[in-house]
Design brief:
265 residues, mainly alpha, 3 domains, two-stranded antiparallel ribbon, 62% helix
């Protein structure tokens, strides 16, 4: 029985080394403890997030088994650390609000890792083709484009979760200057600088009208979305540059890139 529990906690891809398997076990134990706590407190939103986290930890194993892809050990370690940082710490422990750079760092890393997946797809197609050989510049552009596409889809997911599930993944931000046409009397652009107070009137759950005051103007996700895409771009550009020199030297230099590129089994 104990052997089955241990194997379940350390379940990973066949290519994961002992250190990576121990990371799986530690992260799953922490997630299990948090799940039991959320069940006891009857916080069903947290329960849903943690169940999703368990599913994400099984994603590398599922990819290897069903798509016959070999995930490098270092890349797999980065993936599960990313999941733990985003879900367990970011969402459940509110690291996104406690540490302003937490979300920025994760989206930058996401841009870098997603570019590795993009290079993997290009490598498979390019090396399997008999007559077509893509140039290093074109491969770098495709790698960059794939990463940015993943970043955009991520933001689509956040927007959908906020509007369908009532979450707040696109974090609000207080701003003190806005440019608006809607607030102009003649449909021209008007700038409202040094906004020091906004009063929000809304209907509370008991049906009564309530108000809240904030020190500025409330931006509901635009700045967060654009910042995430910009830092995703930074990560994607960094990997694309490395990918260019990697392809230019026919894999003789920049060997570390291979640790972030899944390959066909």
């Amino acid at each position: 029985m104990m052997t089955k529990i241990r194997n379940g906690l350390m379940r990973s891809t066949p290519y994961a080394k002992r250190g990576t398997r121990r990371l799986y076990a530690a992260f799953r134990l922490i997630t299990l403890g948090m799940l039991l706590s959320q069940l006891y407190l009857q916080r069903w939103e947290g329960v849903g997030i943690l169940l999703l986290t368990f599913a994400l930890y099984a994603l590398p194993w599922a990819i290897v088994r069903f798509l016959k892809i070999e995930i490098p050990n270092l890349f797999e370690g980065f993936i599960i650390c990313f999941i733990f940082s985003a879900m367990n710490l970011g969402e459940m422990r509110n690291f996104y609000n406690t540490f302003p750079l937490w979300d920025t760092a994760l989206h930058t890393l996401n841009g870098f890792l997603a570019a590795g997946v993009g290079l993997s797809l290009v490598e498979l197609l390019n090396h399997n083709a008999k007559r077509v050989r893509l140039s290093p510049v074109f491969i770098a552009i495709l790698t960059f484009s794939f990463s940015m596409t993943i970043g955009v889809l991520w933001e689509f997911g956040e927007y959908t979760a906020d509007n369908v599930l009532g979450l707040d993944m696109q974090k609000d931000r207080i701003v003190h200057t806005i440019n608006s046409v809607a607030l102009s009397a003649d449909d021209s652009r008007v700038q409202l600088p040094e906004i020091d107070r906004t009063v929000i009137s809304y209907q509370a759950r008991d049906g009564q009208t309530a108000t809240k005051s904030i020190n500025g103007y409330l931006d509901i996700g635009l700045h967060d979305t654009m910042k995430d895409l910009f830092v995703n771009l930074v990560g994607a550009v960094c990997f694309a540059v490395f990918a260019y020199f990697y392809e230019l030297s026919n894999a003789e230099r920049f060997q570390f890139i291979q640790h972030f590129v899944p390959k066909r089994k």
